[in-house]
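Human: For the file, kindly provide a plain-text protein record giving the amino acid sequence and the backbone structure tokens, at your earliest convenience.
Assistant:
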Amino acid sequence: MSKEIIQLFPAPATPIELQGLYLSIPLVPSDWPDRPFVYSNFAASIDGRIAMSSAPPGRSRVPDTIANPRDWRLFQELAARADILLCSGNYLRELEAGTAQAELPLCNQPAHADLLGWRRAQGLPPQPDVAVFSNSLNIEIPPRWFDDGRRVFVLTTADPASPAAMRLRQTDATIQYFPGATVGGAAAIEFLASRGYRRIYSIGGPYVFHTLAAAGVLDTLFLTTVHRLVGDSAAPGILEGAALSIPLDFQLRSLYYDAHSHGGIGQTFARYDRIQR
């Protein structure tokens, strides 16, 4: 992982090491108000696909044509900086089916073991906690998610008396019930803020991303763009859901060029910060 990338923006163009890139940058602006900082990350093709519409049994819907170890390193670095990770019930179902891109916990691969030491040096627990959006509660939480004192929250609108809710109460998860048909992004972030979480990393895919964007609580997007067209009109993009009632405007904060992924076709790593109105 020693091949350098090039910082394109801000200028001037500067070679920089990929490993440690997202550990060294200021994540939260110094003048940030007293509220959580919510960020997300995606890897996409040039035509905006983040996964394919289907996958062979036991294979991830995020194909090797998009996924790559260099982007995955940066994903892990962003996770290492989080207090809590946001994911969806669908992620858990894909995990059970063997089609999820990768498993939690953080840094469960030798190449990323240094991030555990980085968290210790920052005075952080070994693993960020996890919050799962699930309206149906049709999920199975892996027992290993509770290792190292990790807390797991399930955010739901399900009936507390339902069999699924009663089954989940037999685990160590904390179930938080919300009114309405779906859990809103603002209500979810407000609840997590009340529990003391300040750096909230959404890894839950395009529907959780839409929930946060529609509520206006998303602050930063890290976007890797792989220089490849993959097609598949039914494949998801980074934002899936109804049109936003108020479009969110972002400004480019940083841009890096990586010439070494996918046999040399390259990719870019961009950070976009929402313009606060």
Q: What stands out?
A: The longest strand covers residues 37-45.
